[in-house]
Amino acid sequence: MDWATLSAFAIFVAIMTGTPGPGNLTFMAIGASAGYRTAFPVIIAAELGSLLLNLCVAFGLGQLMARGGLMVNAFKFASMAYMTYLAWRIVQLNIKPKGEVSLPTFWEGLLIHPLSPKTWAMSLVAFTSFFAANGMGLYENAAILTAGFLIGGMISHSVWAMVGVSILKVIGEGALMRGITIAMAIAMLAATAWSLLL
């Protein structure tokens, strides 16, 4: 892969992983509700899920998803159902007293990217635009694709979680914080629904 293509891929990753989506909004909400230390293991889990998704795309599952059909419809249903569940978990962190609701787990984080339509779209567009006909081997392409999204995801998820922590420090707990958390959960569902319609 030449330097110009690699640079374009890096810019694509930075923009796509840095913009709002189910993952970033989830980590912002967790950071705002429970702090960065709580968000970090879930971020690691989400990145492992991203790694799995990008490997699947690189080794051919992306072509099956691009064809549409029953598999894509099942994915859309599972995606919306899981993101609705995740939004409810995020809201629970703020509307119930601390200690009455469990914090998001590693296993919940693991499913964020495999069930996120935004992540699938990013990976499919990146693979077809930068890797499909670049003359490199399958394993080399898979390594660059996964490494790019792992680095971009770790940075962006951490930044969004820290933004959440900053919001908590500025406004504290209370009605305004609950309102912001609910707004983030609604935005996450809206981003998921929008991605599914595209």
TrEMBL record:
Nucleotidyltransferase is among the record's keywords: no
Q: Which InterPro entries match?
A: LeuE-type
Keywords per UniProt: Cell membrane, Membrane, Transmembrane, Transmembrane helix
The molecule here is called Threonine/homoserine/homoserine lactone efflux protein
Membrane topology reported for the UniProt record: Multi-pass membrane protein
Which organism is the protein's source?
Pseudovibrio ascidiaceicola
Q: Where in the cell is it found?
A: Cell membrane
Q: Which Pfam families does its entry note?
A: LysE
Residue stretches spanning the membrane? 6-27, 39-62, 68-88, 120-139, 145-168, 175-197
Please state the protein's primary subcellular location: membrane
Q: Which domain of life is it from?
A: Bacteria
